[in-house]
Design goal:
Layout lengths: L11 E8 L2 E9 L4 E6 L20 E6 L23 H14 L5 E6 L1 H12 L4 E7 L6 H8 L9 H9 L9 H9 L4 H15 L15 H15 L22 E6 L7 H10 L4 E5 L9 H14 L2
Parallel strand pairs: 3-4, 3-5, 5-6, 6-7, 7-8
Antiparallel strand pairs: 1-2, 2-4
Helix pairs in contact: 1-2, 4-6, 5-7, 6-7
EC number: 3.4.11.5
Organism: Actinomadura graeca
GO molecular function, one term: aminopeptidase activity
């Protein structure tokens, strides 16, 4: 079973002005002369973790990572209620990726994404297919209406996590529980910390409750990280991921030629495998793997094994 590569530190980093008053934090680690690869983190709004660097052989890859707009170390942070998110959309993030590629003088690169990172990776590749050498996608999230209904209405994931769903639902008064996404939106974007902090904690409690097949302790996130994460995630969910009306499957013909590996946990509650299956049916040329002993997390042993095996094969 493949384990992570050893920890590695960046040898270059900085902030890139991407317009609209935003600067994204970026870092590069591994081999400066190696094969370029870009890692797209989840969320939206999740930010980078040190282990994100460890899916790649650092002797073979020039590994590029960045915090997407308004999260992690990017500036300004969405934890500030005065920060508006009108310039934080999928087209903006796609443009940021391309601007970062140009800034680092990279001609083409491998795109690696997990969860929301698969959504963003597909959107980027469909917009710039000539810049992508390969794709590695884990936990496919297509953000269709049925996918959102599974996550945020009583008929979906709530059946498998009833206590966690009850905590999420009951943080909202009964009169507003008919549309929990709208009700949470009023609260996580409220300027009053007495309103937006507990609402963000409840929202993220549900978001993080079903990430792995076997329970793991929840991450210890401070209020500023929770608020930024909740605000950005809600912003995208409430707006259908800012995707074209026809969705991402309609654009598969533009990327069909790109070698790709698509991976999903069998017991992924956050992005159930029917989404990866639908992508596979639209894109049968991509290698498709269901990991039988995994949920949503990219760190689960079976999923991690397949992902690192894929980057090892693509390193050339």
């Amino acid at each position: 079973m493949r384990d992570y590569y050893p920890p590695v530190e960046p040898h270059d980093s900085g902030w890139l002005d991407v317009g609209d008053g935003n600067e994204i934090y970026w870092e590069v680690c591994g081999n400066p002369a190696g094969k370029p690869a870009v890692f797209l983190h989840g969320g939206p709004g999740g930010g980078l973790l040190p282990d994100n660097r460890r899916y790649f052989d650092p002797s073979a890859y020039r590994i590029v990572l960045f915090d997407q707009r308004n999260c992690g170390r990017s500036r300004p942070g969405a934890d500030d209620p005065g920060v508006l998110l009108e310039h934080n959309t999928t087209p903006h993030l796609v443009a940021d990726i391309e601007r970062l590629r140009e800034h680092l003088s990279i001609e083409r690169w491998l795109v690696f994404g997990g969860s929301w990172g698969t959504t963003l990776g597909l959107a980027y590749a469909q917009a710039h297919p000539g810049r992508v050498t390969e794709m590695v996608l884990r936990g496919v999230w297509l953000i269709r209406p049925a996918d959102e209904a599974w996550a945020f209405t009583p008929g979906g994931a709530a059946h498998l996590f009833p206590a966690e769903w009850a905590a999420f639902r009951d943080a909202i008064p009964p009169a507003e529980q008919g549309d929990l996404v709208r009700a949470y939106g009023r609260r996580v974007h409220d300027p009053d910390p007495a309103v937006h902090v507990p609402a963000s904690r409840a929202w993220m409690g549900w978001e993080l409750s079903a990430n792995t097949l076997l329970p793991v302790p929840p991450p210890d996130l401070d209020d500023s990280l929770l608020v930024a994460f909740a605000r950005i995630t809600h912003h995208y969910i409430a707006n259908g991921g800012f995707l074209p009306e026809e969705g991402l499957l309609a654009g598969v013909d533009r990327i069909r030629h790109i070698p790709a590996v698509v991976v999903n946990g069998r017991y992924d509650i956050k992005t159930p495998p029917d989404q990866a299956w639908d992508l596979h049916r639209a894109w049968p040329e991509a290698e498709f793997t269901i990991v039988e002993d995994a949920g949503h997390g990219g760190s689960e042993p079976g999923t991690r094994h397949v992902l690192i095996e894929a980057t090892d094969r693509f390193r050339g």
